Amino acid sequence: MRVLEQIGYYFCAVIILILLGFGYYFICSKIDIIVWNNGICSQCQEGHYHFINGGGYGSRYYYQCDNCDYAISFATCPQHK
Ligand SMILES: [Zn+2]
Q: What does the pLDDT read at residue 77?
């Protein structure tokens, strides 16, 4: 019985970690949508963001305004939204 309890404990821990992972991604993508602002620069309201750097595993995606050079970064990739 002890072994079953331990398996149940680890199983629950794994489920919680997976849920936290999804929650983190969900919240990040929501924030990214707001920051992305449909690709319109939030500083000058005229320029459009274009991809400049990032995208490797665990790194952020960096975008820059083509009008005023205002830069933003994302946890997820708004280009695919
Ligand atoms: Zn701008």
A: 59
Amino acid code (one letter) for 70: Y
With a cut of 50, say whether residue 50 has pLDDT above it: yes
Q: For residue 79, is pLDDT > 60?
A: no
State in Å: Cα 26 to ligand 1 middle. 27
- Ligand 1 center to residue 28 CA distance, Å? 22
Domain spans in the chain, listed from the N-terminal domain onward: 2-75
Residue 38 burial (CB count, 10 A): 9
In Å, the largest CA–CA distance within the chain is 66
Return the pLDDT at 28.
84
